[in-house]
Amino acid sequence: MIGAAEIVPGVSGGTIALIVGVYGHLIDGAGHLARGVALIVADGLRGRGLARASAHFRSVRWGVVLPIGVGMLAAILVGAKLLAPLLEEHPVATRAVFAGLIAASLVVPIRMVGARWRAREIGIALVAAAITFALTGLPPAGEANPSLFVVAIAAAFAVCALVLPGVSGSFLLLTVGMYAPTLAAVNDRNLGYLGAFIVGAMLGLGVFVSGLQWLLANHHRVTLVIMTGLMLGSLRALWPWQGSSNDLLAPSGDVVLVAALFLGGAALVTALIIIEHRLVARRLLAADIESDPVPDAAGHAPHRG
């Protein structure tokens, strides 16, 4: 589901991770992986060995992260073949379904914020929503034939969407004219392009995840408030009727069908939320989002929930 979301412009993989309850695990695992790789380089050059890097690698919840990674890779490979043509042939219907998914999923960060929202927090969420609304309204750039350096830089920014609900990496690529070249690289197995993209993504994760972990640990509530605003603003990119320059158009055609698809997407997310709530009630699933930037002394991530 996360991999499929990353293929669709306007849909955030981080949002899907929040919905299905694996967001905390991904943040934690990405942070440890990025620090482990950085320490391999830093400590290796200084002759300090690999003990610190190994501690971070052992703290990754591989039983969660690896299946998610395999599923994401498979979904991206399949989605590049299936979802891209679907978006081109049925853009209104496809956006309607994903708009319903995102609209219903707003309850996830709202519930995680907890107690009653204060006026200042509502204002912060609205500012974040306005910024995302403006960004998703930018017209797409012309298709580019980017250098590998530009590919890496774009990937470093786009990968932030994987850990930031409401922000779509595919949409960021679309606005700079690199969405179609990236899909083509996946379909054509262009290893040079994909290698540059992966290197840039790892660099982006290393910098961005550390900052997000710190925010979740030290400003948990306001971070979730901002996430809520980002998700709300991202709905602008999923308005079913849009022009070629992302301008919003009035409803037309089979409006009843579009509304039904929107409600169907919302119903799917609502069902997932209800299931998650029942699992939490039965203590089968952790109810909180936590980050763990420091490896456990025993070499394993501490148990939570």
Automatic annotation (TrEMBL):
The chain crosses the membrane at residues 62-80, 92-110, 122-141, 147-164, 193-215, 255-275. Pfam families: VCA0040-like. Keywords: Membrane, Transmembrane, Transmembrane helix. InterPro entries: VCA0040-like. The keyword Signal does not apply. It comes from the Bacteria. The keyword Lipid metabolism does not apply. This is DUF368 domain-containing protein. It comes from Marisediminicola antarctica.
